[in-house]
Amino acid sequence: MAEKYLRKLIENYMDHKESSLHRSMIETIMRANQKLFQEVNGMSDIFMEIVQEKFDRKLREEVDKVVEAAVEEAVEVAVEEATEKAVKETTEKAVKEKLTERISLIRKKCARNKSLARIADDLETDTDEIRFLYEVISKNPEKTVEELYQIISGKAQK
To answer: CA 103, CA 70: separation in Å to the nearest integer?
Structure first.
């Protein structure tokens, strides 16, 4: 008689595998009656199949969690690296623009034979601040602003 009910329970389980509520109820019944399931011929295989399904489901959930965490970390690292690169490029561009503008102004003033002190006064800065620029520009009057920038920034082609 117990075998008949157990077979009916297993059939019912197989028909409703996708229902998590139904699956939980059947698993609870099977866990509570594990010895009975094992005693009935062939029931232990079905019981093992159900246990395997539960194990596989838990394994998939854990793998999904690990994969999701790894993806989140990879995205975080990628965003951080992209942000650092963008900040660096923007900073370098701003520095280049400001330095190029200053080189251009000093170059024009040098072309009019203005002294270092006069150029510093015109630019409202200290002579020590622009001395290096003034000296490079004075020694290379034939160079373009871009060429002067390359020399000053240490990127002149050798």
So the answer is: 49
What is the tens place of the pLDDT at every residue in 3-16?
Answer: 677 667 777 777 77
Instruction: Judge whether 148 and 136 are in contact, CB under 8 Å.
Output: yes
What's the pLDDT tens digit per position in 41-94? 555 566 667 777 888 888 899 999 999 999 999 999 999 999 999 999 999 999
User: Phi and psi (nearest 5°) for 16?
Assistant: -125, 35
* Phi and psi, residue 120, nearest 5°: -60, -40
Burial of 43 (0-12, 13-18, 19+ CB in 10 A): buried
What's the sign of the alpha-carbon dihedral 104, 105, 109, 115? negative
Residues 6+ apart with CB under 8 A from 105: 123
